[in-house]
Design a protein that fits this description.
Order of helices and strands of chain B: EEEEEEEEE
Radius of gyration of chain B: 13 Å
Largest sheet of chain A: 7 strands, mixed
Strand content of chain A: over 45%
Number of strands of chain A: 11
Strand content of chain B: 35-45%
Oligomer: heterodimer
Order of helices and strands of chain A: EEEEEEEEEEE
Radius of gyration of chain A: 13 Å
Chain lengths: 119, 110
């Protein structure tokens, strides 16, 4: 059974870079047909897909965030990571990592981590 | 890319059936059978309820069903139960090799 665990700071200053790592257990991040994604949810609002990555390193980004996002994968550590630069208060959200079957659906998800952007 | 359109809220009484719509375009919902639905209780992680328009993951009640017609997908919950009260989100693959979510629908069980 796949399990995912995000790790990262709960507070980031405006204009800085938000960084998260998701550790996958119970399976290999290099499994074919599995992709790995990041989703966020501002407080009281809906879900927003940030981007996804395949173990080969192929990346897919939300066009609205593409200029500020880098997603990477480390197969040796069974981890994938998110970097979002030049953050503002609008980036305050719960950030989730999730497995994906191809680029079709999400599941399982990590537990989510609230990140607040504030000075 | 624009978010898929869902009603902000729907409601129903226990035992009734409700349907939540999810409207997109021919570039997403209408173009692929890759629509999924997620249930999210307050403070909890979203849970996959339906994938590929109408398939149900193991462990999800058969009271949940999905369908699609043109650019609109639908989630139907039959035999409403109090525990079904939650937020529901649809998602679709798009022509740009991206994913898009709906704005979410709050289901209230009266």
């Amino acid at each position: 059974q796949l399990q995912l665990q995000e790790s990262g700071p709960g507070l980031v200053k405006p204009s800085e870079t938000l960084s998260f790592t998701c550790t996958v257990s119970g399976g290999s991040i290099s499994s074919s047909s599995y992709y790995w994604g990041w989703i966020r949810q501002p407080p009281g609002k809906g879900l927003e897909w940030i981007g996804s990555i395949y173990y080969s390193g192929s990346t897919y980004y939300n066009p609205s965030l593409k200029s500020r996002v880098i997603i990477s994968v480390d197969t040796s550590k069974n981890q994938f990571s998110l970097k979002l630069n030049s953050v503002t208060a609008a980036d305050t959200a719960v950030y989730y990592c999730a497995s994906m079957w191809e680029l079709r659906w999400f599941g399982p998800w990590g537990q989510g981590t609230l990140v607040t952007v504030s000075s | 890319q624009s978010a898929l359109t869902q009603p902000a809220s729907v409601s129903g009484s226990p035992g009734q059936s409700i349907t939540i719509s999810c409207t997109g375009t021919s570039s997403d919902v209408g173009g692929y059978n890759f629509v999924s639905w997620y249930q999210q209780h307050p403070g909890k992680v979203p849970k996959l309820m339906i994938y590929d328009v109408s398939s149900r993951p193991s462990g999800v009640s058969n009271r949940f069903s999905g369908s699609k017609s043109g650019n609109t997908a639908s989630l139907t919950i039959s035999g409403l139960q109090a525990e079904d009260e939650a937020d529901y989100y649809c998602s679709s693959y798009t022509t740009s090799n991206t994913l898009v979510f709906g704005g979410g629908t709050k289901l209230t069980v009266l």
